[in-house]
Amino acid sequence: MSSKKLRGIYYDTETTGISSKQDRIIEIAAFDVSTGATFNELINPQMPIPQGATAIHHIDNEMVKDAPTFEVIGKRFAEFCSGDDVVLIAHNNDQFDCLFLEEEFDRSGLEFPKWKYI
């Protein structure tokens, strides 16, 4: 019996709202437990950030206006989380973070990685 060690990466997204179909990711942050590496990128959502969302995460339109789009950051995030030993860990993954990631990868024409989740 082989016991393959998994690489846990805690991650979180901040968004323009709560609908993965209509809203966009504006920040992805992650921490790789195995290596201590971090990932933290603002993303230009190419749409205005509602004041209600800014009140929650404190990210405003000015902060993301010159940030790369998800197409660029999605590739970087996929590279940061690459490997068949990776497990992504998020507080509300199944009902929020993962849904947003899937939508953003699809919108950007990027292949969605086959990550495992907790």
What does this structure look like?
There is one protein chain. By secondary structure, the protein is α/β, with parallel strands linked by helices. It has helices spanning 51-57, 61-64, 70-80, 93-107; strands at residues 7-15, 25-32, 38-42, 86-89, 116-117. A 5-stranded mixed sheet has the order 3-2-1-4-5. A hairpin with a 5-residue loop joins strand 2 and strand 3. The chain is globular and about 50 Å long. The chain starts with 6 loop residues before the first strand and ends with a strand.
Overall shape: it is globular
Identify low-pLDDT runs.
none
What fraction, in percent, of the residue positions are helical? 25-40%
Averaging pLDDT over every residue, what do you get?
Answer: 95
Into which percentage range does the β-strand content fall?
Answer: 15-25%
Strand tally: 5
Main pleated-sheet profile: 5 strands, mixed
What is the count of helical runs? 4
Overall radius of gyration: 14 Å
Structural class: alpha/beta
